[in-house]
Amino acid sequence: MVAATTPGTCLAAPATTAEPGTVPLDPGIAERLAGRRLFVTGATGFLGTALVERLLRSVPGCHVTVLVRPTRRLDATARARREIIANDCFTRLRRQLGDGFDAAVADRFAAVAGDVARDGLGLDDAGRDALAAADVVVHSAATVSFDAMFDVAVEVNLLGPTRVAAAVAAAADRRAELHPDAPPTHLVSISTAYVAGTHQGYATETLATDAMASGARARTHTTVTTEVDIAAEITTIRRLRADREAESRRPERLTDFTRRARKDLGSAGVHLIAERAERLRDDWVRSELVEAGRARAQALGWPDAYAFTKALGERLLVGEHGDLPITVVRPSIIESALAEPHPGWIRGFRMAEPIIVSYARGLLREFPGLPEGVVDVIPVDLVVAAIIAVAAAGPDPGGPSVVQVASGVRNPLRYGQLVDLVQRWFTDHPLYDSDGQPIVVPEWSFPGRGRVQRQLKRATDMLELTERLLTILPLRGERAEVAGRLEDRRLQVERARSYVELYGAYTETEALFRVDRLLALWERLSPADQQAFCFDPGAVDWNAYVHNIHLPSVVQHARVRTTPGGSPVASRSERTLRAILAPDRHLAAFDLENTLVASNVVESYTWLATRHLPAGERAAFAARVLAAAPALAALDRRDRGDFLRSFYRRYDGAPADLLRRDGQELVQQLLLAKSFPAGIARVRRHRALGHRTVLITGALDFVVEGLRPLFDEVVCAELGVDSDGRFDGHLVRLPPTGESRALVLAEYAEAEGLDLGESVAYADSASDLPLLECVGFPVAVNPEARLSAIARRRGWHVEQWSRAATRPPLPMGPLDGGISRWWTRIDHVLRESR
Amino acid sequence: MSPRPGYVLEVDRTTPPTLFWHGESFRLERLPTGSRVVYAPEPHEPLADPVAAIRDALDNPLGDSQPLRSLLRPGMRLTIAFDDVSLPLPPMRRPDVRQLVIEQVLDQAASAGVDDVVLVVALALHRRMTESELRHALGDRIYDAFAPHDLLWQHDAEDPDGLVHLGVTDRGEDVEINKRAATSDLIVYVNINLVAMDGGHKSVATGLASYRSLRHHHNAHTMRHSRSFMDQDHSELHSSNWRMGRLIAASGIKIFQIETTLNNDAFPEQFRFLQRREWEWSMRDRAAYMGASSALARVPARLARSVLHGVAAPHRMTSVQAGEVEAVHAVTTANVYAQQLVEVDGQTDVLTMGLPYISPYNVNSILNPILVACLGLGYFFNLYRGRPLVRPGGVLIMSHPTTPDFHPGHHPSYIDFFEEVLADTTDPAEIGKYEEGFATDPWYVHLYRTGNAYHGVHPFYMWYWCAHALDHLGAVIVVGGHRATVRRLGFKSASTMADALEMAADVVGPGPSITHLHTPPLMIADVR
């Protein structure tokens, strides 16, 4: 490696041939960086946000430019303000500067639009100028998720650093033009200590390529890293994406996705099912790519695709741009802040937190790990301080160098110690279950990973089986809730299992990350800088850190129950109910069957058809309809519209006038008797509040006529009448089912100038999803299992309304002397249809 | 052998446990020694030939009325009004008294050549009767002759075109009644006078009236001053109705009143033990009790309800009188008293009662919590003449499951009354502020007019019915009731009769006197 610049022109490092570790860093960090421009990628992330804040607060003279990917709604500046400056990380600086905060930010902070996954970082001219003006570029953008898709991890983690370096190199001429005397830009690239992979023993602060050059021991990660053909790897992975995308579109796969979507949603309509099927396809491609990454990384000796792509990224960066002044900073597991900006500050739910919360909830009874092994955790503010010190010290004149920021050698936290601390803390500060009972955290037995995985797999399989059995049963209301709770439980266990799979390697890691260069840099700091920019891992008191800083912060961020007493679930449901019944709602739409009445079109028909049937024929007739019920229900599940069309054929020949008269009686004796009184009361409540009430049902007009006074608008099915005043058995227009309900409602709302976003809809089954999804306040009433699960996941309001105490045993009209015989026509139709 | 009069038993160590109704079931409770149990008189002998008696009454009217025959002429407008499904209780076996009487009236009308005849069910604000209920009350012959031609009407107190405002009484009470009746040449009103409250001027003035008219006497004030409404001379309810009735008469409307009385034979042979004195139960009665009570307690309430509502009473007619309203009613009242009065010496500290499955407002329906309160505090408490059975500040103990079950078709406004009004206040004087809203609610009006629902204001009336008792009593305790519901009603809950008696002692002092009203069958305690 040859340094591209002469030491004299390097801004930060004093011109000296002496060992850098021995020369004090004078002037201090803040003075060295005063007037300098820093360019930061990944600033919306955990580390990036902390870095930007620290620079603005502790290095008063510097200017910070961040590279931010604009979203569809927000441009770079707006996104930077919302996701970086508005974060609680800045609370301290905001308080410090008071009214001057905004001016200071406007003066010293800027955002440019770009994307590290694109060549040239997707910068425009202004962006390129900003990059050219940068004295230090800190590249901290990464896909840190351990289960990222392989191709995404490759684009960001493997190719990202090289792209940044290429952009910096490309801006060199422009830089010379704009700032003729300025030294070359120093690139500080953030990697991870875990590029050491499954290395055992000390992992030093050297690049893999250097290690090989200096004769490293055979068959370690370094050899593997240097042996992998990166270009071939990238080509293969990009092709893999195309392959999986093509595979996911094979007819058999597509049929399967559609079948599963229909199973999830029932007859919710073509579009919703298509949407769901497309999501299932997308998920499938995603999981294939995640799996591909995991398999490839493990085959080559890394725990996961993250560490693997990071390792290759380092090698590619140095291989392609070794002549740039580059420093690679490798932190270990970054966790909440020790002191800066305030103790416990954390952004996002990171690696250890979900595991800890799962444990505190009693879900994860054991996590694999070696009690005497080291969990290499490092507070975020130490990493930030180290990066700033590296930036201030300037690049190593000897070429690309590595600084590790880790605690394992200097101040190890043993896994057994951590577990003990966590257990003690949660015993003193238990979480509470939904019944308000404290959860007792389990004893840890430090099992092997295999055993834990097997246990969790057994639990998942069992739950899945029970859940599948429950969805087959036609459950509603509270019983369907049981299925929903089981599903929640299964998802939690599955998540616990994925933690074990993903992170198990990190508690079993046997590499010890040396920090000699970090400590050498530390030694060069003046006492004042050591005070202001502490990055000595020895400064952490693990007991105090875990108990007083980290766990309280985790619990606070997890929004878990830390007190007994009223269930937060109940209070949330009260809140949503208040919102639903707020006077500013516009409209309330109601489904009829099983939402307002526990009855259906088959019962209505049976009731009407037997209303004038002689006693002797009634039972036989009812039995015939009941016998046909399963087939009818199956048809109904497949397609509601088809079902209604074919079922309503049975009204062929029925006298319209008589049925209209009987309809009034039907409402009274069947529908109201089988109603949910709370549902009727809710309709009235909405009316009293001045909301429009709309009934949208596939039931026939003469069946629901008696309910009309409850609603401002009734949308229902209607049969044609022939010249003799008899129904012809054909619908006069499309019945309002599935998606057409949402359309009808949207049309009505538009015509009346109402906002569906401010409206409420009540329905009971997944086939009503289009209706529920089109309003701002969906309510699932006595939901069947599928809708119950959906409502839980989306946080929809759920009502469990109980039936009236009057339930006619059979849906049959009262006896009549027999003045009409329209049922004989039906009988005929029935026989024909067999 | 003439039927035995009512009887007051003093409980001693040898007395068998006493039967308490408990909604759709019944229980045996052992009352403390010294308690009194008031038994109704045994059923009076019925008329041997009721049809002949009816003819005789029509031909020999009381008061200054002419015989019906001479009031009928061709071309006249005749309206026959009759009591609705709330009478008698339980519904009687076919043929119903209404059928027997109306058949005779129609015979006479037919032979007189009257062809403009309409039958009107005098619903007031009660629910419309169903076809099968009408067929039961009138018989198929009358039903099939009138209903298909739209000549069988149900009074509609909300029909703006079907009511006439006749004027205002000297106390400022509006009198507004059914237009068809008011514009007829003659109203024949057919009563079943099951209790002393029924009949008289109340028949037309209440049965065919509108909400505007009814609210003058159906309110908390009137009910507080009706002591009791089984005793016309001390009932503000009746005074108001009498003023209205006289105004109706004065406005030229002719009423031919027919009143009938029934004996108190309420239960058929298999349930005979329900109206027998416990120490006289035979082996068969005991077996019937065991079988019925355990079966009813085991099946779902819905099923028990449909079994019990299917039981028709073997009531028989004991008297029929016709003619001028007041003269007829005086005789009728005397006949009712003859069947139902039981002399009781002095008031009691604690009154106990078992509430059955039925009240006037839940025939073929559910005795919801508001009707439970009304049955106990409105009806049974008021089964007295002279002084209430229980002393002022005394305790009423009622036995009933009081589950929060409602019939959404029959009692829609009751549900909202229970959820909204009673959640706010249980004071009859306070609930008035909600009355107008319920009375004019379009959904309730719709269900009342087109369905089989009680008028929206009806639950208020049920609560006003309780006003006198709530004023008078120191506490109300429900035994074996649904706790939250009982609390909502403003009463106290006890799991057992023994607990209830303990709780009562806290109110009235230790060693209270206890009296059990052994009803049904119906009776009126004549408290000396």
Architecture overview:
The complex is a heterodimer of chains A (834) and B (528). With 834 residues, chain A is of the alpha/beta class. Chain A folds into 4 domains: 7-16 and 24-228 and 300-332 and 376-409 and 514-535, NAD(P)-binding Rossmann-like Domain (Rossmann fold), CATH 3.40.50; 250-299; 351-369 and 413-509 and 538-566, no CATH class; 586-833, Rossmann fold (3-Layer(aba) Sandwich). In chain A, strand 17, helix 32 and strand 18 form a beta-alpha-beta unit. In chain A, helix 13 (251-265) packs across helix 14 and helix 16 (352-360) crosses helix 23. Chain B is α/β, with parallel strands linked by helices and 528 residues long. Chain B folds into 2 domains: 7-43 and 340-527, LarA, C-terminal domain (2-enoyl-CoA Hydratase, Chain A, domain 1); 56-262, 3-Layer(aba) Sandwich (Rossmann fold), CATH 3.40.50. Chain B is built from 20 helices and 20 strands. In chain B, helix 3 (97-111) packs parallel to helix 4 (131-146) and helix 13 crosses helix 17. Classes of the chains: A alpha/beta (834), B alpha/beta (528).
Number of domains of chain B: 2
Within the CATH hierarchy, at the fold level, what is the topology of the largest domain in chain B? Answer: 2-enoyl-CoA Hydratase, Chain A, domain 1
Radius of gyration of chain B: 22 Å
Fraction of residues in β-strands of chain A: 5-15%
Assigned CATH class of the largest domain in chain B: Alpha Beta
The averaged pLDDT of chain A comes out at 81
The CATH superfamily of the largest domain in chain B appears as LarA, C-terminal domain
CATH architecture of the largest domain in chain B: Alpha-Beta Complex
- What is the typical, i.e. mean, pLDDT of chain B? 94
Looking across the biggest beta sheet of chain B, what order are the strands in? 1-4-19-14-16-17-18
The portion of residues forming beta strands of chain B comes to 15-25%
CA gyration radius of chain A, whole angstroms: 34 Å
Helix fraction bin of chain B: 25-40%
